[in-house]
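Researcher: Structure for this, please.
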Amino acid sequence: MSTTANATEQAPFDRELKILSPPKNANPIAELPESAYKLDANEIKKLYQSQIDYRQNLENKPMKTQKMRDSEEQEKLKKYPKTTIRVRMPDHTIVQAVFQSREKGKKKKKKKK
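Model: Predicted structure, token format:
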């Protein structure tokens, strides 16, 4: 790795951490009934057909070289240098943080017994 790449990875990055509480006078969020998650036959057919169409589209696309894929990824990183992630807690509090798009998650080490 070059020294400039190391410098950008090690430089402190402002996470812009925010904790957003729901308004005190807000109406409670209604829970959806279990039936809202059940699909009927037509919805299942549409989902299945969309998956078939998506796969056929992928199979019919021209193949790309590694260089082409890398350049597309670099363009995406230029367009979206930061990623905002929001997590809604069970009490409807929202935790928001900003990450660099090229950051990778850290793997949790397993404890040996």
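Researcher: Any notable elements?
Model: The beta strands are 18-20, 82-88, 94-100. The radius of gyration is 22 Å.
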